[in-house]
User: Fold this.
Amino acid sequence: MKRFFGPVKMAEPRVSDAEQELFGGPLRYDLGWSQHEHAGLDLTMMSALRSMPTLVGAALRLAWQADRRALLAVAVSEVGQGIAAAVGLLAINAVMHALLAGTGSADQRLHALLPGLLAAAAIAVVNSALSAWSTSRAGRLEPKVERIATTQYLAAAVSVELEAIDDPDFRRLVDIAQHGPGAARRMIGACVAALNGLISLITTAGVLAVLHPLLLPMLLLIAAPRGWGAMRVAQERYVSVMAWIEHVRASRLIGSLLTERSAAQEVRLHAVGTFLLSRYERMAESAEAEQERLASSKALTEWIASALSGLAMAATYGAMFWLIVAGHMSLAVAGTAVIAVRTGSASLGALVMNINQLHEESLYVRDHGRFLTQAAQRTIPAGGDPVPGRVKEIALDQVTYCYPDRDTAALEQVSLTLPMGSVTAVVGENGSGKSTLMKILSGMLLPQSGTLRWGEADITGLDRSQVFERVSLLTQDFQRWPVTAAMNIRIGRPAHAAASQDLQPSVDYAGAAPVIAKLPDGLRSLLARMFRGAIELSGGEWQKVGLARTHWRSATSRADSILIVDEPTSALDPEAEIEAFGRIRRLAAPNRAVVLVTHRMSGVRHADHIYVLNQGRLVEHGTHDDLIAAHGRYAAMFDAQAAQYAPAVGIPHPAAPTVADPA
Ligand SMILES: Nc1ncnc2c1ncn2[C@@H]1O[C@H](COP(=O)(O)OP(=O)(O)OP(=O)(O)O)[C@@H](O)[C@H]1O
Assistant:
C-alpha cells in the first residue's frame, strides 16, 4: 500500500558494467535537468497550486507581449465555452424535464422537449465554433511566444562579457535556459487547457449546486482519485527521468560518437565501432528495463485510480437513487446530474493533469527568467567615451587577470606598449598566458587590476563597442562559418556591404586566390561539408580564408587600430608559412599596431619588439638580437627549434617492444 500512497522516492539506478568500464562509474552531467531535481520532487498538488499565480503570470506576460489580441481572443473564447457548457447543461435539464416530468401524451411531450433539444444543438454549434476560434488564436500565439523567448535568450547570450561565457556556472545556466522558449510555448497550450478545464468545472459545479447541493461533494469524490493517479504517474515519470537522465545521455553520447565524422577513422581502423556498439546495447537494455517498470507502475496506478473513482461514482449513483426514492430529487434532475457529474469529473481530471504540466514546464521557464536576469547583470555596458581617432600607442600597465574558477592568475603584473605602425611578438610556453593577454588587449576581458589604455584613455571609461570596432583578431581556431566563401571573408566586418570584386584584394593579399579558383562556384561556393553541394577546405586553406577575412576587416577601417594574430600559421606548409608571416608584417601601417603570438620562432625574429611570457609574467623583452645576446629563455627556445633543423647526428635505435610477443 505504502508503495502507492507514500511519497515517490528517487532510487539510484544500478550502474551497468558497460558504464563502469567506459566511464569509471555513472556519467554525471553538470547540466540541465539535474538542476530541477528538488523542484521536481516537490511536485505535489499543493506546491503546484501555490506556484500557479507566479508562473501563469510570467507566461501571460510573454503572451501579452507577443500578441495581445490573440491572447484576448483565446480568453474570450475559453470563457464563452465555459458559459456555453453551463447553458447546455440547463438545456439538457429542460429536455429531461419535458421527457420525464412532463404531462400529456408521448406526442405532446416530444413536442415539448423540441425547444430544449434545439437550444442544446445550437449551444453545441456555438461551443465548437468558440473552440475552433480558440485553437486558431492559440496556434498564432504559441510560435510568437517561442520566438520572443528565443530572441530574448539569444540577445542576452551574445551581449554578455566573455568572462561570463568562461564562467562554468553561467555556462551551465546558458545550457539549461535553452529549454525555456519551447517550454514557454507549451505553457501557453497548457494554460489554455487549464483555463478551459477550470471554467467548465466552475460552471458544471454551479449547475450541480443548483440541481442539488449534495452533488457537488460527490463530484469531487469521483474526480479526486483520477487527480491523484495523474499526479502520481507524473511524479514517478519525473523522478525516473531525473534518476536515469545521466545514463540515457551516456548511451546517447556513445551513439553519437559512433556516427560522428571526427571519430569515423578510429571507429573503423581500431575496430572501436563494434566495441562501443556492444556497450551501447548493454546500456540501452538497462534503460529499457526501467521503461518497462515505469509502464507497469503507471498501469497499476491508473487502475487503482479508476477503481476508486468507480466506487465513488457508484456511491454517487446510490445517493441519487436514495434521493429519488425519498422524493428529494426528481428523475429529470437526476438525469441531468448524471451527465453533469461525468462532464465535471472529466474536467477535473484534465485540470489536474494540465496544472501538472504547467508546473513541469514552468521549471524551464523559470530557468529562462533566471538566465535573463543574470545575463542583464553581466552584459557588456553600452555607451561610454568615444575612442580617440588617433592614438600613438596602446599600453598595458601592471595588468593582472585570474579566470573565475582558477586560484592562480593567468596574467600577473604585465606591462607592455604597442606603438602604432609596429609589429610586436609575444612568445612563451603552453599555458604561459599568451591567449589571455590577447583577450585583454582586444577588450574582451577587462583587467582585474592595472590598466589598458588607448592613447591616454583608460578602457574602462570607453565605449566598448567602439573598442571592438578597432580590433581585428585572427586566432588559430577562428570560426569556420558554414556560409559562402565570400561571406566567410566579408563576415570580418559584416555590416560593410561588399561585392565579389571588393573582396578580391583581400583574397590576393592572403594568397587565397588558388583556393578560391579551385572552388566550383568561386567566391559564391558554400563552405560547409554538411550541406549538399558544399565544399570542405583543408586546415591550411581555411587559414588563408581566415587571413583574407582579417585583411578585409583591417582594410575597411581608417582609424587607429590593433591587429592580433594568434598562431596564424599552424596549418600552413613551410613555404606558405614564410609568405604568411611576410604578409602579416606588411599589415603594420601607421594607423595599425600588429601583435603576433606564435610558437614558430622563425616568424618572430623580424618583429620590432618581442615579449617573453612565463607563467603569466613577462620575463624578458627586446629585439631578437637583444634577446639572443641575453642568453635567456628566448634564446633557449630559439636554439631548441633551430636544433631540429640541424643535420641529424644519428638515428636513434628503436625502443624495445612494450607488449610481449605472444609467440
Ligand atoms: N577560459 C578559461 N577558464 C579558466 N582557465 C583558463 C581559461 N583559458 C585559459 N585558462 C588558463 O589560463 C592559463 C593561461 O592560458 P592561455 O590560454 O592564456 O595560455 P597560452 O599561453 O595561450 O597557451 P597555449 O600556448 O597552449 O595556447 C592556463 O593555465 C589555462 O589553463
Residues 29-35, 37-41, 657-663 have pLDDT under 50 and may be disordered. The first strand starts at residue 393 and ends at 401. The first helix runs from residue 2 to 5. The domain at 34-377 is CATH 1.20.1560.10 (ABC transporter transmembrane region fold).
